[in-house]
What does this fold into?
Amino acid sequence: METVTTRWSTAMQLDAPIVNAPMGGAAGGRLAAAVSRAGGLGMIGSGSSGSAPQLEAQLRQLGNLQHPFGIGLIEWVVKQDPRLLDTALEARPALLAVSFGEDWNWVGRARDAGCVTATQVADVEAAQRAAEAGVQVLVARGSEAGGHGTPAVSTLPLLTSILDCVDVPVLAAGGIASGRALAAVLAAGASGAWIGTAFAACQESLLPDTARQVLVDARADDTLATRVFDVALGYPWAATVPERVVRNAFTDVWDGRIPDDDARAQLRDAIADDDFRVAPVNAGQGVDSVTAIEPAAAVIARLCADAHAALAKTPPVS
It folds into this structure.
């Protein structure tokens, strides 16, 4: 397999500079194990409704994994259930990411446990604060990314600005679902790519096939950043942190409005029934490149081969 590497990926004992984003509800132990076995860094995610027992269940899905893996947590969820951080540290992941907050008390605990620390940032100021707090890896999350995040700056401008102001490795996130996109962020100086949508559609993700098919069928302009699902479900995400999802009947009616009680009940029923005409499916603007439901190993092989080919091309003479 043609591959690409960076100094960071080699230091992390990876065969490819690829991390699957720790997407709540999609990135479980089975996906993390598949990504790690294929040479990337598999991450287990704990989302808005995450809990320590759920994380423990997904950690068991890793099996006898003889490869590095990681765990991604959300700060406000950890504050609701502090056992989440304890459970994550006990698992001794190679990488621990805690995002969407400004409390850095977890950093020392994670480093004492032997974990490399990471967090997602959406602007230069946040990157500087995280680096000053001792976070070892920053994830430059651009506005194209699926799921929750501050939609302020697109990936490449954000990546280059952060690289200019910090001395720690920076991973690029947002809109990276093809080998060309991987090559672009590596050429710009990223130490690796933090990839969500392409792995959410994989056979090993926690999503049901109906949600995976939504991703296969969607195009970049089918996504939007919205707070409507968080408002309807009562999740305490900040107003500045919407989530990028595939448009559906619920967003068509309620985006930008406060759902009434009937709409909230309809949403809860749709989630229970895996009815994604109403229930949310997170997706980034790289969703155009998701064209099939396939194993994570196949995704990594294609990303690496296509990135290798793109990086090997001689630039045209102007």
